[in-house]
Amino acid sequence: MLALSASHSPSEVTFLLIDFKGGSGLGPLAELPHCVGVLTDLDGHEIDRALVSLRAEVRRREQLLARADVPDLASYRLGGDRPTTLPRLILVVDEFRVLVDEAPAALSELMRLAAIGRSLGIHLVMATQRPQGALNADIRANVTSSVVLRVQSEAESLDVMNAKLAAAIPTDSPGRAYLIRGNAAPEEFQTATLAGTERDSGAGHVTVMTAEEFLTNPPLPAARGSEALIDSADAAASFIELARTLWLDDGGELPHRPIAPPLPTNVPFPGPASPIRSSGDPGPVRRPGFRLGIVDLPEHQSQSTVGWSPPDDGHLALLGGPTHGRGTLSAGLKLLLAQWAADAIMPAYILDADGTLASAASHPLAGAVVGPGESRRAARLLARSSEEMARRLAASSAPTAALLLVVHGWGTWVSAFRSGPYAWAEDLFQDLIRGGPGAGITVIVTGDRELVTARFFASLPNRIYFPATATLESRLMWPAVPKVRAIAGRVIASGPFAAGCRPDAGRSSPVVPPSKDRDDGVGMGQTRYPGSTGSEYDDGPDNEASDADTFRVAQLFEPPPWAGPAMTGDLVGTEARLALSFRVEALPDRVTVRDVASRLLASAADGGRAGRKGRDDGRFWIGLAGDEPGPSGIELPASGVAAVLGAPGTGKSTLLESLVALNPLMSWLKPDKETPQEYWTEIHRRADAGTLDRNAVALADDLDLSTSEVNNALRDLNGRGWRVIFTAGYGPLVQQRVPLAMQARLYGKGVLLRPRSLMDGDLFGVRFDPESHQPAGRAVLIGDGTATWVQLAVPEPSALSRKDAKGNAPEVTPEERQG
Question: What is the rounded distance in angstroms from the CA atom of residue 497 to the CA atom of residue 171?
Answer without folding.
Answer: 60
